[in-house]
Write a structure and sequence with these properties.
single chain, about 400 residues, alpha/beta, TIM Barrel, 2 domains, nine-stranded mixed beta sheet, about 40% helix, iron-sulfur, Coproporphyrinogen-III_oxidase, S-adenosyl-L-methionine, iron, chaperone
Length: about 400
Amino acid sequence: MTLAAHSRKTGAPQAVYLHIPFCTNKCFYCDFNSYVLKDQPVMQYLEALEREMEHTVKANPPGEIKTIFVGGGTPTALKPDEMAVFLRSVKTYFPNWADDIEFSMEANPGTTDAEKLAVMKEGGVNRVSFGVQAFQNDLLTGIGRIHNTDDVYRSLENARKAGLNNLSIDLMFGLPNQTVEMLNESIDKALELDLPHYSIYSLKVEENTLFHTLYQKNQLPLPHEDDELQMYLLLMKRMKEAGYGQYEISNFAKPGFESRHNITYWRNEDYYGLGAGAHGYVGRERHMNIKGINPYVEASRAGLPRLDHFEISRAEAMEDYLMVGLRMLEGASASRFSEQFGESIEDVFAKPLGKMLNAGLLERTSDGFRLSEQGILFGNDVFAEFIGSISLNS
């Protein structure tokens, strides 16, 4: 039985997302629910998060937890004593961990000293993902990062000394003033680190960011579209040559080191989502939490701090399954689809599947469909074909 089928029947998600919304500063491209740490009520927030955990497990008791992911913000902005309190509460409310649990935490270089990493390791964290973004200090300054490349090397060394070896870094391409040569240099430096996992994303100019304001004023010197395409082709080529499997549009790993938590999302499986602004998906119901720190703290005193929650119709769940499943290069599984929904993926999506196959953007696998080499470059166009393509009763 798949994790998804098990979750539907027992109502016990096996994945947990926790949001720590504090940052040392706000990056120029960031539209995440995050707040500069200075003068924030951190302990009140952690107490509120613990209350949400308590309410959540009463409403939907957890089964065996296979993955935990702590995102932000910058979770490692917490002080060691705050980190210890937080991790103890996670273990208290989600105590039944799989023997091979993947417990990931996002980190910024320069925010992880030996003491904090020891607390993280002691609390069960066994995978750390560092937001590096680039290996040129000028580019880092230009996107509002406060670390430099020296911080990257020091942070990774500290993590390994603490016994944390399942490490990942994020890189970005399509940054203002970035050239193909700069990206190639960043990939060189990244591969020299010989890490098990890399996430490499293109910059998206999101609303309510400094970059969006500059973009609107025509003051954001972004690379030409042709250069950005060359960057993506280059990184796929370089990562493949170095022995990393591209298992998702933006993610590369050595065999066995794929992010199992993110695969939960891409397979459209259930997960708890806790913290200010967090999203969760349990029993075909999605929720989004209240975003602001103080409103979230107040709301948690009265019950679950929800901003919104809604049932996902059967049709929408099917569409979601295709759109997120096709992000993975193994593709969307037909057998898993029929197990979740009791119908054939080819019957439900005959028209868009046929159109994308004929266009050469999708190809068949032994168990479903995946993006072709060309389709990887036009993923968003492919995903859009499945939105609103069926109308079934929920």
